[in-house]
Each structure stands twice: as C-alpha cells, then as structure tokens.
Specification:
- The chain has strands at 2-9, 15-21, 44-54, 59-60.
- By secondary structure, the protein is mainly β.
- It has a domain at 2-60.
- The protein has a 4-stranded antiparallel sheet, with no helix packed on it.
- Strand 1 and strand 2 form a beta hairpin.
Length: 104
C-alpha cells in the first residue's frame, strides 16, 4: 500500500504528487497504518494526503484521516545581546541646536 501526497512548491506554487510507503504494507479492514516523509521547509509550502492506493494496479482505497503524532518542538539557539553602557552625562541631549540630528 502507498499514500499519495500532493506537495505544493514554494517557489512557483506548482503542485506535484509523491507516493510514500505505508506501514504495515498490508492492512485489514479498520486497521491503522502510518507513513512518514521528510521534506525541506524551503522547498514545499504544504502537503495534503490525496489518495490511498493498493495492489499492482494501484487501485484507490477508501480511507479516513486521523490526527498525526505530535512533532518534537524545534530547538531555538539562545542568543545573548550585550548593550553598551549608557552615557554618564545625564543632562546631554542627542538632538540640540548645536548638534542637530534629522528625524525621519
């Protein structure tokens, strides 16, 4: 058995189809199967299940969709931002008539 996915490319929005093997390969009625596919997020904007096929002639099979497994949370690298010390002259203005600055 295989699952047919419709993948939309990011750069031009064209949809392409890809078949992915289903585990276990043979399912009995009311039995569940799983599939897994890894795609680059830079290449594809969406993926949609469009068919479940079986046999050598890949005849379509009726199916229902359930919620998938949760993905592991992405790990974000922590960044440390160091800000310079403030000026020790508290009465000094940045924009004065002696030192004009243009404000956009």
């Amino acid at each position: 058995m295989s699952v047919e996915l419709e993948l939309k490319r990011r750069k031009d929005g064209i949809a392409e189809k890809q078949s992915v093997a289903l585990e276990p390969a043979n399912l009995e009625p009311n039995q569940e199967g799983r599939y897994s596919v890894q795609l680059n997020i830079q290449d594809y904007g969406s993926a949609k299940l469009v068919a479940l096929k079986t046999g050598s002639n890949l005849a379509p099979v009726p199916y229902t969709i359930g919620p998938g497994q949760k993905r592991q949370p992405e790990r974000l690298e922590s960044k440390t931002i160091t800000v310079g010390k403030p000026s020790s002259k508290r009465d000094e203005f940045l924009n004065t008539k002696d030192n004009p600055a243009r404000i956009p």
